[in-house]
Amino acid sequence: MSKVVLLSTRKLPPTYFDQVREDLGDQDITIDVVGWVAPSAWVADKVNTFTLIGPGRMPAEPAPEETVVEEKPAEVEAEKAPTPAAPTPTPPPAAPTPKPKPTGAKRVVKAVEWRARRAKKVAGRMLPKAIKTSAPVKFLRGQRATSDLGKTYWERVLSRRDVLSTIDQADVVIALDAGAIWAGWNLGQRKASTPVVLGLPAARRELDMMKVPSA
Fold this sequence. Notes:
The chain is an alpha/beta fold. The chain contains seven helices and five strands; from the N terminus they run E-H-E-E-H-H-H-H-E-H-E-H. The two termini are 21 Å apart.
């Protein structure tokens, strides 16, 4: 039976591990997870172990479902209850009084407000595109955040003996996202005998190669 270790910095749902087994082509494969974020729900029935090395707590085990006892229907009354009287129709509401149009000083105020709104729209169209959009800034911040998370994740992996022991027993180590790439690269340098790959398709190729008998 093959054994894989998943390195992840994202929140994973329980159904994801069913997809992992399907993508790897082995329903009996043993899955151990080293996660920075706790899964979205209870996963003890989906994986062998899930080691949380980041902030937060693991989801609690769901309570067992209670058995619902159906109650017997009440006896039907011998006599049918009298039919309630039909309600008196409510007269339709009167049409609302139309709002009077602004006159005099109010009309002047309305005109000034309209001109101010129009000037604001024109000024907005005249702004350079670089000022109105901040996509490059968001992209740089995202890159920096991913880099910092990757280093922190690797440092936490390196400091946990239980995590390193689990990784040493794996046939393949799989980095699932960008935050786990740095840890995967370092693990590959640390122990060259264990394949460390990025993504499930690459892991499937490694597992298929292990099944081929050596000449």
